[in-house]
Structure formats: structure tokens, C-alpha cells
Design brief:
With 230 residues, this protein is α+β, with helices and mostly antiparallel strands. It is 30% helix and 25% strand. The structure holds coenzyme A (COA). Coenzyme A binds next to helix 2, strand 2, strand 4 and helix 6.
């Protein structure tokens, strides 16, 4: 992304991406001089200034989202695989894209997991399309966007959101081709099907996603419903 996006503001509502009672906060301007809680400061001390600002911006969105749930400010440490470690009873996700950061959170009673991804709405490099998209996804790209590169960027974003939602429940790295995204462009929704790897198909079947354009960005949200057998 190149510079601020005048079509986005801190009032931009992301809530449509992840259904209630999940709540979200999007921010277009990182606050300066943010003091991070101790556990976050420890994680951030190896960061270069730009990465620290991005990290702090995401954490700020996360704490503001938690406040919307009635949760007092709390440290959100960094997990072993870089995932945010939410306070007990909370699920959530963080994403950044250039000057924009966003977070979505919910109580565990509502959802088993959440995933959020922001991407610049720019074509994916042609050389990456086949790495990201399965053949079945490539044939459906035209339904997503006239430009195959932009359509592939949408698939990329949906997979990133799905990966973030799946991670806390299975803690397994996934290649892009392990999931097939099945978008419904008219509704702005998607589901995912496991095509390879270790992700239990029954877990992926509980994942539903939504995607939208947000100014110069693409946004994808994924929610995983609670296991009805538990
Ligand atoms: C984490 C990842 C999904 C997105 O990271 P990114 O490109 O930097 O983009 P975003 O800004 O949207 O997201 C970063 C945030 O995701 C969160 N995150 C990082 N790793 C995570 C994980 N394993 N699970 C859940 N959330 C994670 C963090 O909050 C991070 O921000 P922070 O480091 O400031 O706290 C990606 O980098 C990654 O690890 N990919 C490997 C797996 C993959 O993409 N497989 C194909 C999809 S099926």
C-alpha cells in the first residue's frame, strides 16, 4: 500500500467480516510512543522500529477490541509460532497491511477460533498464483475478479484468514495447497475443504469465512464454530 487510504478511517467497521458476537477494531494510524506491557516489550525488543510500530498497532487494536467485549487492558504475549496469546476465555486474530491494523475478538463461548487477514487489493505476482491456488481454484478465479492476479490475491487472503483461525486448534503448519477455498462471490462468503495434510476435515468443515473490499484493501475473516460434540 502506498500512503494513507482516504477511504478508510478508524470508524471503518469490520464487524461484518466476523459475525456477532465477535467484535473488531480497525485503525488507520498507529499511535506514537505506545508503551507496551512488559511481556510484549520483551518480544518487541528485537524488532526494528517499523516492525515494533506495526506490532504495537496490532496490539492496540486488540486491546481496543477486548474493551468492546468488556475485557480490561491486558498483555497479549507472542506464542511460539508468533500467534497472539489471548487472555483465558478469549479467541481472536490480528492483521496489518501497511498503515492499517485490525483485530477481531470474541468470547470462547461464542466461537472456537477466529482468523483475520488484510491484504493490499493488488494483483498477486503471476509467479505465485500456482503456488497459492489449487487447480480447482484457478478455474474459478474469473468469478472472483476479472483480473486473475487480483482474484488470486483474494484466495490468498482467505487462506491466510483460515490458517490463522485453524492454528490455535491444530497447531500445524499448512501449505497453501492443503486447503481449497470455495468462495460464493455473490454472498462474499467462503468455506474451505481439506485436500491434503494433517488438518482434520471435520475441523475445516466448521470454518466459514467472509471477504470484502475495504478501500484499497482486501479483508477476509474466518470463524470456526464450537465443536458440537464437546
Ligand atoms: C502468520 C501468517 C499467516 C500471516 O502473517 P503476515 O503475512 O505477516 O500477515 P498479517 O499482518 O496479516 O498477520 C500477522 C499477524 O498474524 C498473527 N499470527 C502470526 N502467526 C500466527 C499463527 N500461527 N496463528 C495465528 N495468528 C498468527 C500475529 O498476530 C501477527 O501479527 P503480530 O506478529 O504483529 O502479532 C503468515 O505469515 C504465516 O505464518 N504463514 C505461514 C502459513 C501459511 O500461510 N500457509 C498457507 C495458508 S493455508
Amino acid at each position: 500500500m502506498h500512503g494513507p487510504d482516504p477511504t478508510l478511517s478508524d470508524d471503518t467497521v469490520l464487524d461484518a467480516l466476523c459475525p456477532a458476537p465477535a467484535v473488531s477494531v480497525l485503525s488507520t494510524h498507529a499511535r506514537t510512543g505506545v508503551i507496551l506491557p512488559g511481556e510484549e516489550e520483551v518480544a518487541a525488543r528485537i524488532f526494528v522500529p517499523a516492525r515494533r510500530a506495526e506490532f504495537a498497532h496490532g496490539r492496540d487494536c486488540a486491546r481496543r477490541s477486548l474493551r468492546r467485549l468488556g475485557v480490561a487492558p491486558v498483555a497479549i504475549p507472542v506464542g511460539q509460532s508468533r500467534e497472539p496469546v489471548w487472555p483465558p476465555g478469549i479467541v481472536g486474530s490480528i492483521s496489518h497491511a501497511g498503515a492499517v491494523a485490525a483485530a477481531v475478538v470474541a468470547r470462547c463461548e461464542a466461537f472456537a477460533s477466529l482468523g483475520l487477514d488484510l491484504e493490499p487489493d493488488e494483483p498477486l505476482d503471476a509467479a505465485l498464483v500456482a503456488q497459492v491456488c489449487r487447480p480447482g481454484e484457478v478455474v474459478r478465479l474469473a468469478a472472483l475478479d476479472a483480473d486473475p492476479g487480483r482474484a488470486a490475491r483474494r484466495i490468498f487472503s482467505m487462506k491466510e484468514a483460515a490458517y490463522k483461525a485453524l492454528w490455535p486448534l491444530q497447531r500445524a503448519f499448512m501449505e497453501f495447497h492443503e486447503l481449497e477455498v470455495q468462495p460464493v462471490p455473490a454472498c462474499g462468503t467462503f468455506t474451505v475443504v481439506v485436500r491434503a495434510g494433517a488438518c482434520p476435515p471435520a475441523l475445516a468443515a466448521r470454518l466459514t469465512g467472509r471477504f470484502m473490499r475495504l478501500g484499497s484493501l482486501l479483508a477476509s475473516g474466518a470463524v470456526i464454530t464450537r465443536d458440537p460434540t464437546l
